Amino acid sequence: MGSKSEDKAVFDTESAKQMVNKLRASFMAGKTKTYEWRVSQLIAMLNMLEENELQIVSALRDDLSKPELESSIYEIAMLKNSCKLALKEMKHWMKPEKAKTSLTTFPSSAEIVSEPLGVVFVISAWNYPFLLSLDPMVGAIAAGNAIVLKPSELAPASSSLLAKLVAGYLDGSCIKVVEGAVPETSALLEQKWDKIFYTGNGRVARIVMAAAAKHLTPIVLELGGKSPVIVDSGIDLKVATRRIIAGKWGCNNGQACVSPDYIITAKDYAVKLVDSFKCELQQFYGKNPLESKDLSRIVNSNHFDRLSKLLEEDKVSSKIAHGGARDETNLKIAPTILLDVPINSLIMKEEIFGPLLPIILVDNVEESFDMINSSGPKPLAAYLFTNNNKLKEKFVAEVSAGGLVVNDTTVHLAEHNLPFGGVGESGMGSYHGKFSFDAFSHKKAVLYKGFSGDSSLRYPPYTRGKLRL
Ligand code: NAD
Questions:
Q1: How far is the CA of 354 from the centre of ligand 1 (A)?
Q2: Regarding beta strands 108-116 and 403-406, do their DSSP bridges make them parallel or antiparallel, or are they unpaired?
Q3: CA–CA separation, 7 and 1 (whole Å)
Q4: Residue ranges of the alpha helices (H) in 236-377?
Q5: Is any ligand 1 atom within 6 A of the Cβ of residue 127?
Q6: How many Å lie between the centroid of ligand 1 and the Cα of residue 238?
Q7: Number of Cβ atoms within 10 Å of the Cβ of 417
Q8: Whose CA is nearest to atom 1 of ligand 1?
Q9: 50 catalytic, yes or no?
Q10: Rounded CA gap, 62 and 77, in Å?
Q11: Is 222 one of the annotated active-site residues of the chain?
Q12: I need a surface site. Which of 36, 233, 373, 446 has the fewest CB within 10 A?
């Protein structure tokens, strides 16, 4: 009897090609295009989520020690809402949209037809392995496409459950899951796709974009960045602190793309802010947060070491105002606040993606807008806590980020009426709600003409008289 790895068939470029060819044949036969197929797959996904909630929670616990409530809300409930919304609205989304016509084409009528793209490739990340895999798929199904999903190998229990569930519930002639890491993803990236939807880091996004360029394949890139939180004075500090904690440590212990990365506040407000964090953090996670069941662990030892290095830098290690405890065996890091961190430290140069929260001090919070715009790539999200309406207006007008939230953190992600996506190095394209349907559709322009009103203007001979008209 061979070993487990010998038993597993190698997934190479040839396997990828055959898989895509079969899916393309199903797409070309029109299987995914009907309203009935789309409805059947969305209902199947809904059933899949409802009937396997315990297994999903357990896989997320294995991969990340993700607290049950976080799994239930941010992965399962959000996905169910996406399926339900698409089921409710899809007929309307699929309808051709009437367009106005002008004198240039008179007499005519026009419409915009949402056409499925074809066979699409979804590559997802480990931190929200179900949401980031299935949510793009909801849009791709609603828009009538065939799909290959490649979940992240860094969340292996979730990846294997996703493969099992998708094969068991969804139409295998049109939707496939390929598990694996770089070799499998590379084999798939060599194929011709009609869209690639990638969630992850900017380094791999460049590989994805280069592969897509070979076939002129359009892409959506859902990336990350350093999402700042500006905290003004004169606010309800308790509420603000709790909302920052919920967006940072309450989202996978800071391992979320829109988690607050750092805080900017005025020098004379910082001590008050830190005191409030200490008080609320202790209420939420107790005296020994390393033992709290309500905090995810760090995904693996590479990321644990990366975060430890950020914390151990001389300029930073002396700045710990709260927390700092680590448990290497269980890959746990306590919520850690670093006060008055120098802007040139390592921790301020890269996306933290973990439970460390530096605070940068300024004389006046208004300075922070310039600082955010000039200090590095555009962030995925930016947050402002204030009661000052002028400051809100200036923030919205001046700060460039994928999305902004005033007086809360991360919740814009749950609002399906808003597009979710980055700008610049935090990504391109967007999804959620109707925007997901649009991300996987081609907007086909259709102009209808009759035979009457045929002007001779555009036909030769091109006389001077025609020019003057
Ligand atoms: P990851 O390591 O799971 O990688 C993402 C995907 O890329 C995986 O499926 C992986 O197999 C694949 N991959 C890795 N190396 C590859 C290579 N050389 N060639 C082809 N494919 C390759 O996830 P990650 O990148 O560590 O995720 C964290 C990053 O993702 C952070 O920057 C975070 O902000 C961002 N993120 C963004 C969003 C969003 O919605 N905007 C959501 C989650 C995470």
A1: 15
A2: unpaired
A3: 9
A4: 237-248, 270-285, 301-312, 314-317, 367-375
A5: yes
A6: 34
A7: 9
A8: 125
A9: no
A10: 20
A11: yes
A12: 36
Which amino acid is residue 464, in one-letter code?
R
Which of 251, 257, 280, 351 is catalytic? The answer is 257
The closest-lying atom of ligand 1 relative to the alpha carbon of residue 189 is 20
Neighbours of 446 (CB within 10 A): 11
407, 110 Cβ separation under 8 angstroms: no
d(CA 303, CA 308) in angstroms, rounded, equals 8
CA distance to 45, 148, 176, per residue, from 170 (Å)? 7, 12, 9
* Residue showing tokens 């240039």: 104
CB atoms within 10 A of CB 343: 12
> What tokens does 8 get?
């597993």
pTM for the structure as a whole: 0.97
**Which candidate in 222, 251, 280, 351 is catalytic?**
222
Distances (CA, A) of 445 to 98, 183, 194: 10, 39, 18
Mutate to test the pocket of ligand 1, among 66, 132, 152 (most ligand atoms within 8 A of CB): 152
pLDDT of residue 198: 99
pLDDT on residue 5: 47
Question: Could you tell me which residues are beta bridge partners of residue 119?
Answer: 146
- Read off the tokens for 454: 């045929």
Instruction: Decide the pairing of beta strands 381-385 and 332-333.
Output: unpaired
CA-nearest of 54, 48, 55 to 79 is 48
pLDDT at 13: 97
Which pLDDT belongs to residue 265?
Answer: 98
Q: Does the complex come out with an ipTM higher than 0.95?
A: yes
Q: Is the CB of 177 under 6 A from ligand 1?
A: no
Q: Is the Cβ atom of 132 under 6 angstroms away from ligand 1?
A: yes
Which ligand 1 atom sits nearest the alpha carbon of residue 351? 32
CA distance 436 to 120: 13
Q: Hunting for tokens 């999804």 — which residue is that?
A: 431
Average pLDDT per block of 10 residues along the chain, 469 residues long:
55 97 98 98 98 98 98 98 98 98 95 98 98 98 99 98 98 98 98 98 98 98 98 98 98 98 97 98 98 98 98 93 98 98 96 98 95 94 98 98 98 98 98 98 98 90 83
